[in-house]
Amino acid sequence: MIQDKLEALDPKTSAYKILCHLAFKGCILKPSEIALALGENNSTVRARLAELKKQGLVDSKPDGYISMISPYDLILKIYRDLKN
Q1: Taking the CB of the first residue and of the last residue of the chain, which one, N or C, has fewer CB atoms within 10 A?
Q2: Which residues neighbour 2 within 8 Å (Cβ) at sequence distance 6 or greater?
Q3: What pLDDT was estimated at residue 81?
Q4: Phi, psi at residue 21, to the nearest 5°?
């Protein structure tokens, strides 16, 4: 289930930061746009996006990538993480 995969993500990782950025932007972004916004290397962003896509957390479109997770889902994860 997609929620289980979200729960397994560590908030300290670049994959989590990338997913958050995509979810809160709410639009299709190119890997280079994500890298620039987060101060990450393009190669790192591309590798993490491939992992996130394999997990079903992002989807690729002709113009870039989009989150399959809503900002609400991320806020709930943060709440659960803080509660534990």
Answers
A1: C
A2: 55, 56, 57, 68, 69
A3: 87
A4: -60, -45
For the chain, how many residues are written?
A: 84
Q: CATH topology for 12-83? A: Arc Repressor Mutant, subunit A (1.10.10)
DSSP 37-77: HHT--HHHHHHHHHHHHHTTSEEEETTEEEESS-HHHHHHH
Average pLDDT (13-20) is: 96
Q: φ and ψ at 13, to 5 degrees?
A: -90, 160
* Domain ranges across the chain: 12-83
Identify residue 49 by its one-letter amino acid code: L
What pTM was estimated for this model as a whole? 0.92
- What pLDDT is stored for residue 84 in this prediction? 81
Least confident of 3-7, 13-17, 64-68: 3-7
3-state class (DSSP) for residue 25: helix
